[in-house]
Amino acid sequence: KALQESHLEFGSVTIKERLYQYQVRIGKPLTSVRDVQKTQFEVDGRILKIEDVAQVTLEAKTPTGNFSVNGTPAISMAIIKSPQASLYKLEEQLNKIIGQIAIEQKDIEVRVSRDQTDILRLTIDNLKISLFLGCALAIGIVFFFYGHWRIPATVGLIIPVSLLLSLLAFKGSGLTINMISLSGLLLGLGLMIDNGIIVLDNISQYWQEECALADACREGVNEMIRPLLTSMLTTISVFVPLVFLSGISGALFIDQAMAIGIGLLISYLVSITLLPTLYYLFLKNKEATRITRLNWASRLLHKIYDIGYFFSFKRWYLVALLTLAITAIGVNLALNLNTERFPELPMRAFEMHIDWNEPLRPDISQKRLKEIFSTFDLLWEAHAGVDQYLLNSLYSGDLNQASVYVHLEPETDILKMQEQLGERLTIHFPKAIYSFSNEKTPFEMLFPTDNAKLTAKLYWNSNNEVRQEKLYDELAHKIEKIDGIRSIAKVDRDRAYLITPNMTNINSYKIDLNSLAGELSKMVGEHEIFTLHSFQHKIPIVVRQAQQSLEELMKVEGVHNVDGEFIPISQLVNTRTTSTLRKVTADRQGRFWPITLTAERPMQEDLAQLSASYPDLNIELKDPAASAEKMTKEVLWALLAAIVLLYFLMAAQFESFVQPLIILFEIPISLSGSLLFLHLFGATINIMSLIGMVVTVGIIINDSIIKIDTINRLRRLGNDLKTSIHLGGLKRINPIVMTSLTTILAALPFLWGSDIGRTLQRPLALSLIGGMIVGTIVSIYIIPLCYYAIYRRKMIPSTA
Questions:
Q1: What residues contact 267, with CB distance under 8 A and at least 6 apart?
Q2: What is the DSSP secondary-structure string of 684-719?
Q3: How many CA atoms does the CB half-sphere of 746 hold within 13 Å?
Q4: 302-349 pLDDT, tens digit each
Q5: What is the pTM assigned to this prediction?
Q6: Which of these, 305, 363, 275, lies nearest to 63 by C-alpha position?
């Protein structure tokens, strides 16, 4: 009341004097600590100052959390991109601002931490590498088979043109350039090259047959328009069912399927329009020399093809047995290979989460962290106490918690470092509980790679929280003793004082309950009584008790009853310590208490037995490995749906119900090759290896579609069955081998290296290479053999 009366503010008036105008403030406001100290008030006829009865200081607001880098106080800012903004532009502007700060503020060091643009940058780098390799390999392989720079130059030009037009189509269709769409374009790149090589080779074959160059370009393209259209539609149809996968996997495939579809459509149009035009322009002056005659590489390839062709027809039973054996191996590997959602990525950093189990101030927490990390030569960042971000949700904590982000040097033994940190923490602060987790990258948040961690959800049928807490601790102790459990993490709880009124004493002493509650509120907390307006600042004036323990305060503090007697609070309340949950977890089934486990074996049966012992408890296990298995099954069902769709598309193309079956027969054999390579190189079945298998199916059946279309055309021209099969194989051997080689060689670099990009793409590359090697052999030798077995007693009518 004295402060309010002393803080005189009557407003202000404006005085005009000739050309000038003045603002006059009226009153005598409180503006400083000294003003507050000298404020007077009357008690029983005595005039006192506030400084006579209280200590008045200007203090920083009590911090609830802080941040440090290697123990040095710092400020952490989360830069969050808006959904439609460009990540690269944001990064460019941020670096510009950091550069300005470095010039203007020499005493401030600004460093970018947890840069999440790396994965996008790696994806774009992979696209650049693939573009370069694709162009180089396509040009090199075509040159190898044709021996002149003009023909491969046409392929080298249509690849970047197709990519640029695809990116333009991205913009027109509203598809953004992100990690998923770029990976789709990356996968479609090999198919773009295939289209160009197939059309190029067909034009060259017509020119070899003494056809005029313009006629060769026209006929070569016209012959490929329909089969290439079918192969494009079949490839797109492989990805369409994957869009309907549940969860984030289906959402990711939408952008990828659109990117592949756009890339293939553009490539198809470019191959049947721009490529023959370039071919004619580059070679019209060379028509007399016929530079497209078969060189030694093509002649050698044709000789190898002939040897394999005659052997497969003569020893068809050996080929059949080998095919069955490879398929059986593939089925066995499909059932026994380990599954996971995503390949385990190399760690650039990890996080250490600490619960001190003591209500520490953030500055004390930081001192402890500095002591723990003092013997380690590494860069670390620590949040202590409560999260003070406005928007960022990657970190949240409590007063007795800390989260440490540890940067890793190359070739660091992560497990050993984590073990040493845990030992040091246990020795110095035995009450503390700690755990480690992977860096929260976008991929880690979408596809957690720690497949060893399980979450047991404990649902209760009763609402008795005291009983729930007791049973939870009892169950956690029993689970910890189960054989195969490596570690266990329970829910976070805070210790707290529970103050309950002693109604018997309150009624006996005639105490007003509201007065007691008010005194308790002032005693255990800070009581804001007034806000001081000092110029542009608002400073709250807070009254708080001297620093004493709660027990001591309750003995000296009290309330007056209706008779004016002073009764200590300790006589009026009961106190005990308890624990409270820091957060409540729930899902569709209701509220649950989680336990996070790291297990070496399946835990379903053990937890079911425990659950049976408690009738009011239901335990549900969330297993990442089971989620990976579920995802694998969904992908397999999606592939089955894609195969059905493929069948009907090819049936329309060939006007036959039998010929699509011949082509589809190639799929299980090719996928067996993919699984065999995954097994040989120690990889698992995950979303990346499955994408590689899908792409393999799309590429391999294209070769067979065009080959069977060629055989059918030769039979219609009057050739007998074996001659048509043999000539069809010779006509298609060059493009099949060239497209396979470009795809395989472009994927080889991903088999080596330990960076995130290569590790991410390695399972895809393995399944692609294995499937292509086996599938190419199947396309060349086994598909013709199947065709002969079915049609040796049938005829295709010849047409004029």
A1: 158, 162, 166, 188, 191, 192, 195, 196
A2: -B-HHHHHHHHHHHHHHHHHHHHHHHHHHHHHHTT-
A3: 33
A4: 899 999 999 988 888 898 999 999 999 999 998 888 877 677 777 778
A5: 0.67
A6: 363
